[in-house]
DNA sequence: CATGCATCCGGCAATATGCCGGTTGCACCG
DNA sequence: CGGTGCAACCGGCATATTGCCGGATGCATG
């Protein structure tokens, strides 16, 4: 196969909300046999469309702190910085964005100290011009 | 049960990366019987610690646009705004943060037009003082 | 010491999965 | 045209996993 057709889209949308659903039930919902469904899912996994399956943990571990690092670079693109950020285990997600900012980095650390250290490391990276840290006080909704 | 002990933590950390793992294998890894493991997982689900299981979709749907709305409020707390934001289906995640900003809102829309409309709606909400929109150009790593 | 309760274990029937051979529709080619 | 290859589908059987018990154990409580 090659392109993602309507059936694949349905599969993705179902799995993105109910990842532990049995293949048989999934097959039932999309109107295919179990084996065909499994084949499609396997393909999607191998193609990297489905990266994995995650439990959605609602409540943070005690003492875990989430924060956003809002980064402005001296010059874009951000060669190197992205890779170096990915090297930190506390970095959860990095997005390159348009506008005044260049990067939005979501991090999760065990303490304010750890956050400060991380912040300093990132701030002193080559090419980083400005860095604002916003600690997450409260999580609202979270979908998908 | 009541508090989340070390075993629960292990369960969460395993499930947050491999949500489709069979309970039997999970049990093997943490050194408990299958039934005890299933019980714990069920408890975690009912307690809302595990909110659900999601397939991690790597590639965005064609034409889908992600963006961050960085919101400053006139006065905090943000009574009302959080709820109203949650009402938009395109809003993926809302975080209350400290610092100059008050809210970081992650959204995903089908078009720039839709983003603009959303932006306008949020900007004209009562209590919203300032709003910066940053479109995601590229997604870097994403963990957990 | 009895009672209640949380937690654990193992077992059996019901279900789901992995793996296979077989069918179908279709494009391609001598 | 018939033959070949291929992608996608189906169903079936052996094996693995789950749901759903009953029962053991440790522990706090009256």
What do these coordinates show?
- The structure is a homodimer of 144-residue chains.
- Chain A folds into two domains: 41 residues, Arc Repressor Mutant, subunit A; 71 residues, Lrp/AsnC effector binding domain/regulation of amino acid metabolism (RAM) domain (Alpha-Beta Plaits, 2-Layer Sandwich).
- Helices cover 34% and strands 32% of the residues of chain A.
- Chain A has five helices and five strands, in the order αααββαββαβ.
- Chain A has a four-stranded antiparallel β-sheet with strand order 3-4-2-5.
- Chain A is elongated.
- The model of chain A has no long low-confidence stretch (mean pLDDT 87).
- Chains A and B meet through helix 1, strand 1, strand 2, helix 4 and strand 3 of A and helix 1, strand 1, strand 2, helix 4 and strand 3 of B.
- Strand 5 of chain A pairs antiparallel with strand 3 of chain B, so a sheet runs across the interface.
- Chain A binds a DNA duplex (30 and 30 nucleotides) through helix 2 and helix 3.
How would you sum up this structure in a few lines?
The structure is a homodimer of 144-residue chains. Chain A has 144 residues and is of the alpha+beta class.
Spatial gap, N to C terminus of chain A: 26 Å
Largest interface, Cβ cutoff 8 Å:
A-B, 55 and 55 residues
Q: What's the helical proportion of residues of chain A?
A: 25-40%
SSE succession of chain A: HHHEEHEEHE
Number of helices of chain A: 5
Which fold name corresponds to the CATH topology of the largest domain in chain A? Alpha-Beta Plaits
Shape of chain A: elongated
Main sheet strand line-up of chain A: 3-4-2-5
Assembly of the depicted chains? homodimer
- What profile does the largest beta sheet of chain A have? 4 strands, antiparallel
The CATH architecture of the largest domain in chain A would be: 2-Layer Sandwich
Number of strands of chain A: 5
Question: Structural class of the secondary elements of chain A?
Answer: alpha+beta
Number of domains of chain A: 2
């Amino acid at each position: 196969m090659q392109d993602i057709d309507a059936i694949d889209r349905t599969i993705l949308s179902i799995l993105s909300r109910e990842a532990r659903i049995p293949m048989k039930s999934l097959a039932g919902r999309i109107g295919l046999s179990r084996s065909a469904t499994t084949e499609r899912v396997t393909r999607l996994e191998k193609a990297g469309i489905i990266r994995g399956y995650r439990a959605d943990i609602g409540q943070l571990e005690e003492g875990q702190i989430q924060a956003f690092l809002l980064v402005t670079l001296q010059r874009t693109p951000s060669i190197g910085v992205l890779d170096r950020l990915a090297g930190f285990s506390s970095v959860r997600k990095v997005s390159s964005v348009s506008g005044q900012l260049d990067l939005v980095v979501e991090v999760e650390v065990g303490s304010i100290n750890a956050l400060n250290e991380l912040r300093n490391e990132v701030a002193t990276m080559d090419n980083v011009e400005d860095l604002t840290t916003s600690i997450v006080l409260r999580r609202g909704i979270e979908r998908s």
